Amino acid sequence: MDFNLTPEQVGFRETARRFAEKEVVPIAEELDAKGEFHYRLIPKMAELGLFGLLFPEKYGGSAVDTITYSLVLEELARVDSSVAATVAGQVNLCGDLIYRLGSETQRQKWLVPLIRGELLGGFGLTEPGAGSDAGGIATRAQRKDAQWLINGAKCFISNAGTRMKEVVVLAAATGIDPATGKKLISAIAVESATPGYRTGQQYRKMGWRSSATAELIFQDCLVPQENLLGEEGRGFRQFLQTLNLGRIAIASLGFGLAQGCLELSLAYAKERRQFGQPIAKFQAIQFKLADMALKVELARLITHKAATLRDQGQPFAQEAAMAKLYASEIATQVSHQAIQIHGGTGFMDECPVSRFYRDARILEIGEGTSEIQRLVIARNLGC
Question: Which amino acids are annotated catalytic?
């Protein structure tokens, strides 16, 4: 097992870090306070190729491996999880579905502008009555002439409700399996300008405040039948495959955030003086920092293992679930200790670790809750 990064991987990581430090850090606090989407960063991220990381060059992508994708998300989350979440939603939630399931025409129509940053992409899975129980999807799509008639609602959808052009890959019930009586779920792409498609107000959130998250409402929304992605009725399995990649992304956000907390806490502990010396000299603080560093490294290792398995074409669902579970939970733990080390300063909004603490909480919920990850892991163990 080789733990060394290739020169290309190092180059992408350094490029992402320079962008994060130069472009994201100066505005992260302001956008978080305002709850404002980072419109000004979208063209810059597209120019760097952040939206095309996993896709072939023929579509404008850079065709990097999953390790590189994880490294880039880590560097972004190290300074601001909202920006990292936007990239993850664009690439592994929407873009991956269009690339894997779409025809060449569909890829040219939606994937290429997603990579260019001309189109914002969302993944319409969660509903008011279907969260962890994704099989309980109530949104329906019925054939009407040469179109799909869509009715239903989605909630907590990332990369939605902005003033940009948007496309959402929607999970909708398109029939009933006669053998089992269960709903047949299909993937259908819907553009934001489509009549009958509207977004609710942007959610006011505890964290990820400068990412866009909205409710989507479909009322007699008509889209062409050729907007179907992949095979009709097989969307549920297709979405689960996308969630496996999404769990690697969330894990990368988790240890990236934790890495940021560690670096800020170490710097603060070396600067902050009490009882005549830096608090980094106190064993109580040293133990906290040591535990933080250990958790970050372990989360990074299991995530990179899952990414490596994916790149090798091997099964990686178990490792992705483990990575997502562990990295999301240590993000909460490490950000908690970061505030403890910073003391009263860490409780103030102008201190980055305060924002990181709020941002960490969603990681144990999105892409499958911690409870769901434990169920996935247990079932893969044969329980």
Answer: 367
